[in-house]
């Protein structure tokens, strides 16, 4: 594991219990955590591991996207307590899944933020003529079908002039510039989606956690950077 990146679970002694290496140094994992998965039929929830996987923009080497913005091809993974793929979740409307927060609900759905650059003349807002707004949407996706149940679009709701941060631009090829504006989103957290087992502790961590003990397991072996499907 030395020099490798990926999702890692250690026991209380710091020894590795499970490791899922990334197949490419360009890929990243984020928001790796334990949540409770509900099937939406009112049954008892089960503890799962969830995380984001994808690539983040690193300007100015090859992109006009803002630094740290998610790029195309990202997704969220849900793994069960036996470290098996349960679900792969994607964004809709041509947006890219955001790495900050992925929340499972009791309704058998997932809430998350997705974004994509929207070309826009930003001169009325102090930006370049050939700019782009990093627009965000909140998505609620049905885990059983992958269908989008609800979306809220930040750009459709408020004009860029209402953004507190002034547009920023940088010189790219020709006279094109990239700039960000609009209303950045950072988290989605409905009260009913996170049942508590105590102050500040998710219910999935009550008592014995399948992630904190047990015999070591072999790392998953992945040879491609394409998202797993389930």
Keywords:
230 residues; mainly beta; four-stranded antiparallel sheet; 1 helix; 14 strands
Describe the protein's topology.
Layout: E1 6-10, E2 16-21, E3 28-37, E4 46-54, E5 75-79, E6 85-89, E7 96-104, E8 109-120, E9 131-142, E10 148-153, H1 154-157, E11 168-171, E12 177-180, E13 196-198, E14 201-202
Antiparallel strand pairs: 1-2, 3-4, 4-5, 5-6, 7-8, 8-9, 9-10, 11-12, 13-14
Describe this structure in words.
It is built from one helix and 14 strands. With 230 residues, the protein is an all-beta fold. It has one domain (6-205). The radius of gyration is 19 Å and the shape is globular. The relative contact order is 0.20. Residues 170-183 and 193-224 have low confidence and may be disordered.
Largest sheet descriptor = 4 strands, antiparallel
In round numbers, the mean pLDDT is: 76
What share of residues is helical?
A: under 10%
Number of strands: 14
In short:
The protein is 2% helix and 40% strand.
């Amino acid at each position: 594991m030395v020099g490798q990146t990926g999702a890692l679970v250690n026991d209380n002694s710091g020894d590795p219990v499970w490791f899922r290496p990334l197949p490419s140094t360009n890929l990243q994992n984020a928001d790796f955590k334990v949540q409770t998965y509900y099937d939406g039929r009112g049954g008892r929830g089960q503890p799962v591991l969830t995380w984001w996987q994808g690539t983040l923009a690193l300007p100015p080497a090859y992109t006009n996207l803002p630094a740290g913005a998610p790029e195309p091809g990202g997704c969220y993974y849900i793994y069960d307590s036996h470290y098996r793929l349960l679900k792969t979740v994607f964004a809709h409307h041509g947006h890219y899944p955001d790495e900050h927060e992925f929340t499972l609900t009791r309704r058998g759905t997932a809430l998350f933020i997705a974004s994509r650059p929207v070309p826009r003349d930003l001169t009325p807002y102090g930006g370049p003529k050939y700019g782009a707004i990093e627009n965000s949407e909140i998505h609620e996706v049905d885990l059983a079908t992958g269908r989008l149940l609800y979306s809220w679009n930040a750009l459709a709701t408020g004009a860029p002039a209402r953004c507190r941060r002034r547009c920023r631009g940088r010189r790219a090829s020709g006279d094109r510039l990239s700039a960000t504006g609009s209303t950045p989103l950072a988290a989605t957290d409905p009260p009913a989606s996170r049942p508590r087992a105590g102050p500040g502790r998710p219910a999935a961590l009550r008592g014995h956690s399948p992630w904190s003990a047990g015999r070591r397991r072999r790392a998953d072996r992945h040879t491609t950077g394409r998202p797993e499907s389930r």
